[in-house]
Amino acid sequence: MVAGRRVKTVDVHSHCVVPGIMEMIGQKTPANAALVMGTDRLQQMDAQGIDVEVLSINPFWYAAERELAGRLIKTQNEQLSAFCAAHADRFVGLATVSLQHPDLAAEQLEDGMKRLGLRGDRSGPASTARSSRRPGSIRFGRKPRRWAPRCSSTRRVCPSCGGSRGTGS
User: Fold this and answer.
1) pTM of the predicted protein model
2) What is the count of structural domains for the chain?
3) pLDDT tens digit sequence for 43-63
4) Is the residue at 132 inside a domain?
């Protein structure tokens, strides 16, 4: 409550797991119901007083070869998009990209935003796709900026765009 009025509570850092995706690389979907993408999550959000979650997926695919990474990310982003669309008043999705293949990552981000309606990307730091111009930053390749997301990184240098935030960890 703020000034006697209920405010919308948005969790901008929510992780999820798409059931069946981790099995594509020989891992198992965690049994943690709080992470698994599904309608049980809505009950948990209600119990915690969360109105909207921005969903992202912790990267586990950075060692995957190009073809597998492409299939995995495509399936994962499509399922995340469908889930968010089915509950558009409660979820916003961030695309995942295969940073170990920068040109593919750029295509995946563009597809996620243009075709699937995802709002940006969630890029993890554990990638070998480093830019020589900015140590520690990720180079996606050259794509038109008109479709690129605004920087939402909490780090000082955004791994997606190289933009500076001024604060962060």
Assistant:
1) 0.75
2) 1
3) 999 999 999 999 999 889 989
4) no
